[in-house]
Amino acid sequence: MKFATGNISFEDIYKNYAEALTQADAEIQQDGLYVDCLMPDAPKSFNEWAGSQSGMRLINCQLTDLTPDQITDLFGYYTTWAIYFEHQHVEKKFLKEAAVRAKKALEYALKVYFHDEENVKLTRIPDLVRTTATWKAADKEVFRREVAAAKAELPFSDADKMVKALSRAQSKNSDVMRMQGRDANVGWSGGNSQPSRAPAQRGSPRRDTRGRPSYDDKW
Q1: Helices 133-191 and 68-116 meet at what angle, rounded to 10?
Q2: In the beta sheet, which residues pair with residue 213?
Q3: Which listed residue, of 15, 33, 131, 200, carries a Cα 20 to 30 Å from 189's Cα?
Q4: DSSP state, residue 50
Q5: Is 147 contained in some domain?
Q6: How far does the chain reach from its first CA to its final CA, in angstroms?
C-alpha cells in the first residue's frame, strides 16, 4: 500500500487509501487466503430434540437425555459448524489486518502532506493527523472490522465448546458400555462354572507287556 504525496489533496489521499484497502480485500479472496465453507445441514432427527432457530441450532435438552446415535450425529454436526466459524473468523481477521495496514499507510501520507505542503512542525503533526476526517474514517473502518472479527470468534467458541461436551459424552457412553459388557461376562462365567475334577486315585502301577512299571503311572 503506497501513497503518492507530492502536490496531493486530502481527497486524493483518502481516495488512494480506499483503493488500496479495496485491492487488499480482493487479494485476500483471490490469493486463496479466504476459504469458502458451506453451512452444515442439521441431522434428520434434529427437530425432535433441538431448537428450530436458523444458523447453528442449539440443543434444548440435556445430553444425558440423548441416545448414543444422537450424540454421534451432534458431534459431527457441531464439528462442521466449528470448522465453518473458524474459516469465517480467519477471514475477518485478515480483513481487519488489511484495514490496519491501510490506516498506517494513510497516516504516513498525511504526515508527509502536513510536513511538505503545510510546513507544520513535526511535534504537531500526529495530533493534527488525528483531527482530519480522512483519518477518522480510516480509524472507524478499523474499529468496524475489529468488531466483526470479535463477533465471528464467539460462535466458533460456542461450537467448539459443544464439540468438547459431546466428546466427553461419547467417552462416558463408551465407558458405560464397556463396564456393562464386563459385568455381563463376569455373570456368565460365574453361572457356568465347571465342576472340579476328583483327585486321582493312587493305585498300583500298571505294567507293560514285559512286566515292567510304566513311566506314565503316578505313584
Answers
A1: 160
A2: 207
A3: 200
A4: B
A5: yes
A6: 102
Helices 10-30, 68-116: crossing angle, 10 deg rounding: 150
Count CB-CB contacts under 10 A for residue 123.
Answer: 7
Q: What is the pLDDT of residues 158-177, one digit of tens each?
A: 888 888 888 888 887 666 55
Beta bridge partners of 59: 50
Q: How far is CA 125 from CA 63, 110, 147, in A?
A: 60, 9, 29
- Residue in 5, 2, 25 with CA at minimum distance from that of residue 125: 5
The answer to whether residue 120 sits within a structural domain is yes
For residue 99, being part of any structural domain is answered with yes
Number of domains within the chain: 1
Kindly state whether residue 156 falls inside one of the protein's structural domains: yes
Whole-angstrom Cα distance, residue 121 to residue 114?
Answer: 8
pTM as predicted: 0.61
Domain of residue 159, residue span: 89-176
Cα–Cα distance measured from residue 79 to residue 104, given in angstroms and rounded to the nearest whole number: 38
DSSP label at residue 58: P
- Amino acid identity, residue 8? I
The count of other CB atoms within 10 Å of the CB of residue 40 is 16
Helix (H) / strand (E) containing 210: none
What is the chain's length?
A: 219
Regions of the chain with pLDDT less than 70: 1-8, 31-38, 45-54, 60-61, 173-219
pLDDT in tens, 52-69: 556 777 776 677 777 888
pLDDT at 76: 86
